[in-house]
Amino acid sequence: MLSGVNEPGVDEWGVDESGVKGKSRGAALRYLCATVPALFVSGISILSAVNREVAPDLAQIALDLALFGAGLALMRWRHRFPWQVALATALLTLYSTTAAGPAYVAYVSLCTHRRWRQIVPVALATWLCPAAQILWSDADKLRVVSVTSVTMVTGSVIVGGLTVFGLYLRARRDLAASRRRAALEAQAHRVEQAKLAERVKIAHEMHDVLAHRISLLAMLAGGLSHRTDLTAEQTRETAQAIQENAHQSLNELRAVLGTLRRDGGVEDPQPNLADLDALFDEVRVAGQQVEVADTVDGRELLPAQTGRHAYRIVQEALTNARKHAPGTRVRAELGGRPGQGLRIRMSNPAPYAGSSSPGSGGRLGLVGLAERARMAGGTLSHAVQDGRFVLDVRLPWEA
């Protein structure tokens, strides 16, 4: 949609006005262009008077310069009243030759708005007024016809050139505006992509936390419902474990969801490699059999982000084993050191045969694990070897 007022940032001369210096340069350029015709006409008049030894008409010169000054003053209102200012400065050329400068500048400014209902009548006034000035100011009829013809031809060229120039400047301004819009849209797209990536990360965290806790609760509740040989004390301990896991799942869920509304505050401590022992103890209490071989050297030097990914990978692998191979023994092997990377190898008896991958639910879990490994800059592979499902993850660990 076209507007009668120029868009901020670029004026009708195509000058970047985003800063104070840009505005100053644009104003100086406009007023310089408006003054050049006055200087040219004044110079010609002075040379003619000197060569002919004719005394200048001081009253006429004063009127001419006064109208020129009025035209310069009107220029500052061209944005608010574009066609009015252009028409007024054009009418000034009926009595002032030097007012042609402000009239041309105001006309170019009008052309940048591309409103032809206003441009056409102002163009006619800009073209006819200088010729009309010659008609009523010169008594020599033969000379008037000759000069008027030249003036009208010259005026046609000037008005046509100014129209093309004004439309060109508008095209430049539209191009600059489209580039700014494209840059803003690209920035908005990058921001939206960053938000989407953050939502995906939060979704992964929620999946890992809830899947781990709910599978533990299911295991504990299943044991409680099927076993009839438990003593009252064992039943009480199992119920207490269910209660503790339920509270823990709520706390972890609050911590993950808190990232959605946190506004720059300090994040809650995130689990890392040092918390794996507590994780293993927790699943053992719930009844899962886990064998651990930990040969990690210099674990305190492991970056926090890598440690967090490692913890979530082990947690998800244990959850998948509980879901797809319940009651089997899981072996967790961890090793690595700075400069060599971190390796996580999880294995358990495969509950299926003749396939290197589990069913659809398992594939979804593996997709999540592969994505987390990729986010950490590592790799993930899985296969069935000697009747055991083996998950092998390698994460980078700079020296």
Automatic annotation (TrEMBL):
This enzyme catalyses: ATP + protein L-histidine = ADP + protein N-phospho-L-histidine
- List keywords of the entry alphabetically: ATP-binding, Kinase, Membrane, Nucleotide-binding, Phosphoprotein, Transferase, Transmembrane, Transmembrane helix, Two-component regulatory system
Entry keyword Kinase? yes
Q: Out of the domains of life, which is the source? A: Bacteria
Show the ranges annotated as biased composition (Low complexity). Answer: 347-358
Indicate the segments forming the Signal transduction histidine kinase subgroup 3 dimerisation and phosphoacceptor domain, all copies. Answer: 198-263
- Gene Ontology molecular function, alphabetical: ATP binding; phosphorelay sensor kinase activity; protein dimerization activity
Span-the-membrane segments of this chain are: 28-49, 61-77, 83-107, 119-136, 148-171
Q: Where is this region: Disordered?
A: 324-361
A Pfam family annotated for this UniProt entry: HisKA_3
Task: Enumerate the InterPro entries for this protein.
Answer: HATPase_C_sf, Sensor_HK_TwoCompSys, Sig_transdc_His_kin_sub3_dim/P
Q: What is its EC number?
A: 2.7.13.3
- Gene Ontology CC terms, in alphabetical order: membrane
> What is the main EC category here?
transferase
What protein does this entry describe?
A: histidine kinase
Q: Which organism is it from?
A: Streptosporangium roseum (strain ATCC 12428 / DSM 43021 / JCM 3005 / KCTC 9067 / NCIMB 10171 / NRRL 2505 / NI 9100)
